[in-house]
Specification:
The structure is a single chain. This protein has a domain at 18-53. By secondary structure, the protein is mainly β. It is elongated and about 45 Å long. The protein has strands at residues 26-34, 40-48. A hairpin with a 5-residue loop joins β1 (26-34) and β2 (40-48). A two-stranded antiparallel ribbon has the order 1-2.
């Protein structure tokens, strides 16, 4: 697995933009906590690209 970048952020709504357009197979994310006030902490996501033939 190749890690392209890492973001150190906290609080609020975060928008992630790719430098150039990509074609994805799917996006996988992991939710670590859902607090009682309804806020969700998504701590990791992975973008999977289709295999080149």
């Amino acid at each position: 697995m190749e890690i392209l970048s890492s973001l150190a952020i906290s609080g609020g709504t975060q928008n992630i933009t790719f430098i150039s357009p990509i074609t994805t197979r799917y996006l996988k994310y992991q939710i670590i906590t859902i607090s009682t006030n309804g806020r969700t902490d998504v701590t990791e996501f992975n973008v999977y690209e289709p295999k080149s033939e």
